[in-house]
Amino acid sequence: xxxxxxxxxxxxxxxxxxxxxxxxxxxxxxxxxxxxxxxxxxxxxxxxxxxxxxxxxxxxxxxxxxxxxxxxxxxxxxxxxxxxxxxxxxxxxxxxxxxxxxxxxxxxxxxxxxxxxxxxxxxxxxxxxxxxxxxxxxxxxxxxxxxxxxxxxxxxxxxxxxxxxxxxxxxxxxxxxxxxxxxxxxxxxxxxxxxxxxxxxxxxxxxxxxxxxxxxxxxxxxxxxxxxxxxxxxxxxxxxxxxxxxxxxxxxxxxxxx
Length: 258
What we know:
Layout: E1 5-9, E2 11-15, E3 19-23, H1 26-35, E4 39-43, H2 52-58, E5 61-64, H3 89-105, E6 109-112, H4 114-122, E7 126-128, H5 148-151, E8 156-160, H6 165-170, E9 174-177, E10 184-187, E11 192-198, E12 203-208, E13 217-218, H7 232-247
């Protein structure tokens, strides 16, 4: 039997600072294939090359990955500043309408880091350009030095709402996660439920209230060693079940709180 297909939203990348490419982290594909049990399909996030209708028809679910460029602040009605960093307007043009379509169709997606932020913006929310500049917030950015293991090391706890979807999924109200992001949620979008936060109050886990399908998104990077991590594995397994359900023609169960 053919595996369900998960579209992995890629990022624009320059190889050797000169050769344009569409790139996706190997760990994203590994998590989808090895833990979710799906076929990973890298999507070139450029509206010149792919259409929303094609993506919805070809893929059974989507992984909205992290990425160095940020969502452009014009997408949530704010002016561009130096603090907002680099952008990828082509990816914005694909992912924001894609999220809204997936929510309404009940087609599953999992948002990670930038993908988490895209979900919030797609639903009408806003972002802080730099979390570490806010009073009382920790520096959530990737450490500038060190090995991959050191950069993706567990750095802070995330606490979840009692009986919420993340609590039920992990079987715990608090887990340890890595942290590799500069921006974060300022105002939650319509129907966005903040279900998990870091100790400094930074939103770390969200879902779309009332959506008929899988809409879990996290600010950390669960794709790192997903098959072996006790938090990442159940998240990607649940996503895989939702994708398989969609592929088989069944709507995935709602993830609304009881």
